[in-house]
Prior knowledge:
Elements: H1 4-16, H2 20-31, H3 36-49, H4 53-66, H5 71-85, H6 87-100, H7 105-117, H8 122-135, H9 140-156, H10 159-180, H11 184-191
Helix pairs in contact: 1-2, 1-3, 2-3, 3-4, 4-5, 5-6, 6-7, 7-8, 8-9, 9-10
Amino acid sequence: GSHPDVLMFAVPFFARMGLWDQAEAHLEALAQTGHAAAFHEASARFFRMRGDPRGALEPCRAWIEEAPHSMDARRFLLELTATLEGHQAAVAIAAGWHRSNRHHEPLEEIYGDYLDRAGGRRWTRGLLLRRRLTRNRDDAWAWRALTFEYLGACAAAASPRRERLERRLEGLLAECDRTAAGDAGTLCVHAR
C-alpha cells in the first residue's frame, strides 16, 4: 500500500481535478493504513470539496477525537458549523472549548477569531486579549490585536469616549513598540 502522506495528498488532488472515483479509491486505501486521524481528516476535506458540508461533519468530529490537539481539525469543524448553522453556532462551540481550557492560547485565538467573524462584542474580544496579556506581558501579537480593537472602538466612538480611548492607545502603541518594534504588524498598527 501507499504511504499515508502520499494518500493524504492524493485524495484532495484528485478531488480538485474532478476525478472523484480516484479520490475515493485513495480515501479507501488511506482507511486501510490504520492512520485514523489522517483518514478522518481526508474524509472531512473530501466531503467538503464535493460540496457536502453536512457529510463532512461526522468525519471532522472523528478527526478531533483522534487528534484532540489539532487546531486545524477544530477550525475545520467551526468552518463547517458556520456554513451550516451560522457564525453564532460556531462561536458557541469555540466558547465551550475556551471555557473548558481557559489558558489554552490556540483555543483562545480560535474563539477570538470566530467572535470577530460573527461580529461579536468588542469587549469580549478585548477581555480575552487582556487575560492573555496578564499571563504574558511580552506577547507582541496580543498587544497588536488589542491595539486594533481600540482603533476600531475609536473610529466608532463619539467625542468624549473617543478622547479617552485615544489616550489609552498611546500606551498600547508603546507596548507594541516595546515587544516588537520593527515587526511588520507593529508598523501596520502605527500606520492606522
